[in-house]
Model the fold of this input.
Amino acid sequence: MIYGGLDRIATMDQGKVHVRPVGVIQCATAIGLDVLDTWDAMVATALRDMAAYRALYVPHGNIHGHMSVAGNRLIAELIADRVRALASD
Done:
């Protein structure tokens, strides 16, 4: 589950935990898909360094939508960590 910056920047700025798209995650899990939810990594980045969080997205004025190189790198690292964890099981 990857989150766009468009609707998350304000939430992260306030340090609030936003409701995850639980329905999508539950549906995917119910049909046997392994779900990697990136929310915790995003929150941790935002709480540690808001500038680093914003850098995960390509800014378009006040809108942060698509992932930047840094954002894609973070997602790739999370996927690699998950693959390594599954391989060691």
In short: The chain has one domain: 9-88.
